């Protein structure tokens, strides 16, 4: 038998058996998959599977990738291969309702013209005119189109959600119906302060482009049946009847996106101006939040010394640090929820805090959070505040993390079990609600995220933060089916060196602290020089006194010392990283082979001992 195994005939038999095994598994188990990745990167979610299996009409997908033009782009080609593999998995699960075409658009070809006709984004590669296409177009039986202009590598975590959203949009071609109740002038209107008409907010214009928007009154008795998502922005004037209408809408399966605020700085209503700068500008949902298991104080604002913005004080003055206006970075956003996963920067102003109540039946999923260097203060502190840096006076963090936004899911009961006078409730509970709560309204105003320029009579928005993206993502997510809402954000295919990155961040913090100390000493020295020059004869300003020369020399010496400290910090950073690299090399080069050799030796000794025992 051993002779047969080691002979040429034996090797040929093994080769034929291997080929036969592959052919058999390909025929008998064509859809078998084994995903061994930690975050199940190659396994589509149950929500996507439900969308594909419930397709009624055929959908055709056209995947455009410039294969020949990208032959030297290894990283991009690997990503394109993963996109194609996922699309083929979609095609397999859809069971004939999804047709996939892979197209390599060559320069000056009909395929390239078709990609441009779909509106896909081409990236120029060379000065000769070569372009790279890497996008997706989809069409349905009604000739409607949906596209992903370009698959950005940094957005790979949202790949499944974007593909599922495109297919879901083609399967449900009508624009989603959004009902809006707003206590702020999102649509423009007359400004009571200036008496001039105001332009619509950019966020409002974006909603109008993507959704069928229906504005509702604040005293509604019921939410119209055709409304799929109800959007509440600063709902401070809702009557009890309107709150009951919202309650019943949510319990019957309607989706709710609500922006509430302890201090809506954009509120310029007569009521707010009569009540004062801070009083009268808060909004709440009253008993609804308690029924949904959420705690919220409409009179408290979150301060965060870690996320505070730098704001202008005017010409000729240094910027001020405003710890009530915050820049929320990706590490303080949920990377598992498709609403916040693609965002990079959000700016919020005088936001409130949301927290789950003990014993709540709903699931509280935070979307935006503060750092631990934060605290709550009364909103009245902002009344007639001139300098935002006064908020730093006596500030002391309480080491608590506060949540600015959250998704609520799960079973819930009505907030009006006894109904209202003359009205009974139809629904008293629901197995699953879907509500997005955001405790800030100012993030929707133009000044917090976008600059609007006039370009030949047209308003051209230039966003510098992702606030508009948060609104559109939330509406897009909620207006989809329950299956689309459940599609998760996928993990990251790249595995960064987190230890090295942590070393870099720590060194950068030390470097910034030293740099700030140098800048502060520079300002103090300049102030000292100005004080020394006071009272000096203007005709002698070019002559320096001994005291001035001593002050300048002392600063220069200190400046050189601090520069040396900065170089030492950089040296320590590189030394730590190099030390870590040497340790990893030692493990890979020496330790792992030594362990393998030891394992083989132990296996040989055990086998030898067994043979002797026999």
Automatic annotation (TrEMBL):
Keywords: Coiled coil, Membrane, Transmembrane, Transmembrane helix. Residues 504-535 form a coiled coil. It holds the Pfam family DUF7088. The chain crosses the membrane at residues 586-606. InterPro entries: ABC_transp_unknown, DUF7088. Residues 175-474 form the ABC-type uncharacterised transport system domain. This is ABC-type uncharacterized transport system involved in gliding motility, auxiliary component. It comes from Halopseudomonas bauzanensis. Residues 38-138 form the DUF7088 domain. The lineage of its organism: Bacteria, Pseudomonadati, Pseudomonadota, Gammaproteobacteria, Pseudomonadales. It comes from the Bacteria.
């Amino acid at each position: 038998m051993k002779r047969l195994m080691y002979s040429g005939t034996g090797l040929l038999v093994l080769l034929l058996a291997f080929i036969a095994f592959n052919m058999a598994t390909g025929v008998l188990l064509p859809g078998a998959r084994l995903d061994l990745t930690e975050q199940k990167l190659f396994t589509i979610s149950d929500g996507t599977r439900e969308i594909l299996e419930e397709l009624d009409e055929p959908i055709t997908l056209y995947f455009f990738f410039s294969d020949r033009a990208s032959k030297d782009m290894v990283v991009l080609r690997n990503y394109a291969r993963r996109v194609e593999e996922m699309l083929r998995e979609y095609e397999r699960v859809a069971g004939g309702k999804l047709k996939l075409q892979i197209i390599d658009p060559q320069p000056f070809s009909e395929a390239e013209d078709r990609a441009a006709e779909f509106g896909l984004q081409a990236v120029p590669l060379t000065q000769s005119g070569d372009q790279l296409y890497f996008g997706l177009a989809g069409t349905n039986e009604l000739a409607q189109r949906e596209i992903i202009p370009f698959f950005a590598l940094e957005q790979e975590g949202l790949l499944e959600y974007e593909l599922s959203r495109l297919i879901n949009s083609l399967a449900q071609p009508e624009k989603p119906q959004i009902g809006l109740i707003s206590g702020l002038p999102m649509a423009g209107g007359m400004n009571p302060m200036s008496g001039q008409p105001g332009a619509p907010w950019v966020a409002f214009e974006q909603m109008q482009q993507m959704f069928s928007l229906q504005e509702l009154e604040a005293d509604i008795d019921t939410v119209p049946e055709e409304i799929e998502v109800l959007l509440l922005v600063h709902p401070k004037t809702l009557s009890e009847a309107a709150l009951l209408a919202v309650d019943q809408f949510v319990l019957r399966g309607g989706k709710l996106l609500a922006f509430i605020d302890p201090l809506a700085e954009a509120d310029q209503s007569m009521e707010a101006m009569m009540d004062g700068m801070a009083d009268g500008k808060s909004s709440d949902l009253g008993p609804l939040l308690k029924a949904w298991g959420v705690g919220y104080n409409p009179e408290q604002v979150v301060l965060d010394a870690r996320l505070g913005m730098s704001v202008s004080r005017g010409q000729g003055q240094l910027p001020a640090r405003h710890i009530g206006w915050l820049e929320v970075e990706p590490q303080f956003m949920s990377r598992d929820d498709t609403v916040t996963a693609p965002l990079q920067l959000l700016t919020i102003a005088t936001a409130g805090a949301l927290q789950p109540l003990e014993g709540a039946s709903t699931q509280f999923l935070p979307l935006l959070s503060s750092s631990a260097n934060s605290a709550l203060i009364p909103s009245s502190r902002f009344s007639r505040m001139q300098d935002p840096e006064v908020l730093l006076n006596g500030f002391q963090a309480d080491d608590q993390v506060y949540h600015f936004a959250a998704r609520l899911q799960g079973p819930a009961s009505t907030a009006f079990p006894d109904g209202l006078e003359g009205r009974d409730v139809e629904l008293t509970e629901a197995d699953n609600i879907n509500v997005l709560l955001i405790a800030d309204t100012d993030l929707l105003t133009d000044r917090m995220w976008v600059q609007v320029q006039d370009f030949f009579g047209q308003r051209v928005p230039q966003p510098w933060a992702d606030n508009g993206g948060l609104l559109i993502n939330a509406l897009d997510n909620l207006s989809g089916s329950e299956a689309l809402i459940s599609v998760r954000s996928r993990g990251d295919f790249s595995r960064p060196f987190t230890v090295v990155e942590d070393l870099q961040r720590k060194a950068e913090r030390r470097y910034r602290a030293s740099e700030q100390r140098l800048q502060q000493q520079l300002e103090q020295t300049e102030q000292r020089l100005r004080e020394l020059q006071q009272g000096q004869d203007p005709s002698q300003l070019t002559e320096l006194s001994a005291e001035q020369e001593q002050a300048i020399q002392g600063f220069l010496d200190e400046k050189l010392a601090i520069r040396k400290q900065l170089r030492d910090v950089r040296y320590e950073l590189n030394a730590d990283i190099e030390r870590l690299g040497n340790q990893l090399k030692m493990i890979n080069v020496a330790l792992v082979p030594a362990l393998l050799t030891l394992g083989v030796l132990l296996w040989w000794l055990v086998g030898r001992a067994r043979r002797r025992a026999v």
